[in-house]
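Justification of resources, computational component.

The compute hours requested in this renewal are based largely on the per-chain cost of generating structure records like the one below. Each record pairs the submitted sequence with a full structure-token output. That output is archived, and it is also reused by downstream analysis tasks.
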Amino acid sequence: MRVPFHRLRPIMATAALLGAALAPTVPPAAAAAGSPIQVYGAWHCGDDACIWGTVRDMAEFDAKNHWLIDRGDGRPSVNLAILSFVHPLKLLVGTNDATTVDGVPRGINQAVVDWFKSRGVRVMLSIGGITYTDAWDQALAQNPALLGQKAAALATRLGVGIEIDYEQNTNPNLAGLQAFVDAYRAVHPYDATGADPAARLTIDTAAGDRWLIDINRYATANWLRTDTPVLDYANAMVPARQPSAAGATDNWQEHLDGKPTYSPPVLPLAPAKFTGGLYIAEGSKVRPECTDFANSLQKATGGWLQNAAPNGAGTTSGLLGYMFWAAERPSTRGVTTQPPNGCAGGVGAGATAYAIPVPMPALRQG
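The structure output for this chain reads:
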């Protein structure tokens, strides 16, 4: 089945290790006066380590996840939930098995989607994850255009967006991925207003520019441009372990700067075209990012995130926002973000501190 800790990344560069040992040097949230945070979301793994293999009783689901739609005052803690993961090959061939119906995990259904949407929380489905890297390769080799059409049909049926989480670090099938994107966009064209939930199409990249290099390079050059956008934005995922504040911003700065010395180079990414990822549950630990906003990285890095300047791409300062890994049970042997309070004291308090808009507004385009 799944290996524990799905988001553990096989990258811990020397600079990141050194940065983790240093005291944070980024300005606190209170000093932030830049672009408002627009994306403030959580990946959600269900109760079985991201399989979503059973239909949930919605009363039980609410009891374990209520913090996501109520930070304690009736307002949601997030404005986006990404249900993770859909198996790409099963989606392509329409698998029916113990955990899957017509290629879709049994637990990812209209009832769960509507539970979020009825409170103004946008919903997306993540296709892939590191456990399903080989399945992405197989599906893209078999029929990438049909996979894009199947993803678009699923998005239409549930009224959700789609996230591409293809974590192939070595020789990714970029031609196949392009065919997937083309097929999806033929059904759901890019929509700058954000009004059509199914038109929201995003991609995951590494925390910085030194892993998933080929995917990051291609997406930045071809899909994440501000003049001719194809994908809405990227998520810079969590690194191998929770970074320091300085380590997190160093990673995100790599996307802003690009890698001009690489051959071919990685172009700079506009601040308005990506989010930064942080852990709320990691291994056996519930992080301050879940329970204690005053001591959290979303507070410590907030000033930097809202004021990060363009460095060759884009015209406005500030990343789009934060994504948190991951709600409920991201690992079979790890902790959960369940009651009594879930992550209302961290993520929810941050939503209040940053005046996170619910529902999510139209996103900055440049």
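Residues 1-32 have pLDDT under 50 and may be disordered. Residues 144-158 form the longest helix (15 residues).
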